[in-house]
Specification:
Elements lengths: L1 H21 L3 H6 L11 H21 L5 H23 L3 H25 L1 H6 L1 H20 L1 H5 L7
Length: about 160
């Protein structure tokens, strides 16, 4: 049963991750000023694959635990905001709005981690790398916003 649930949760993670392929960084992102500590491009898919694996394992473990309603609700909420950030940042090219999304994502991940911990300690621990990565992503988003104030102040790109 665990492996079936793991596959379902992993599919949800990959569904959110598909937005990375649909809205790739492209020339707009490459032209932005970024902090010196920005990870190289190859780091992102590697880290996300590890994080998605941990998220799926946490979801599967919690799904099998009793009294898991709150944990499952927060798991669902965080994956929705996870899938939203990339289209906002890279698709709409809206750095400010993406910062708002990542703040909500961070709160959702933190809340999910606490709720998962309540039903299964290992599931809660499996969300720690995710929270660390979203913290780094949030700091990067904030730094890009700070370094590109004029770009961030522009009206969002219209998608036709």
């Amino acid at each position: 049963m665990f492996w079936l649930l793991f596959c379902i949760f992993f599919a949800a993670c990959l569904g959110a991750g598909v937005t990375g392929g649909l809205f790739s960084p492209g020339p707009w992102y490459r032209a932005l000023s970024k902090p010196a500590w920005t990870p190289p491009d190859w780091v992102f898919p590697v880290v996300w694959m590890v994080v998605y694996t941990c998220m799926a394992a946490a979801g599967a473990r919690a799904a099998m635990a009793p009294d898991n309603g709150m944990a499952m609700a927060f798991w669902a909420m965080q994956i929705a905001f996870n899938g939203l950030w990339t289209p906002v940042f890279f698709g709409l090219q809206n750095i400010r709005l993406a910062m708002g999304v990542i703040v909500i994502l961070w709160l959702a991940v933190f809340s999910a981690m606490l709720a998962l911990w309540q039903v299964d300690m290992i599931a809660g621990l499996l969300f720690v790398p995710y929270l660390v990565w979203v913290t780094i992503a949030g700091a990067l988003n904030a730094s890009v916003w700070r370094l590109n104030r004029e770009e961030a102040a522009k009206a969002p790109v219209q998608i036709s």
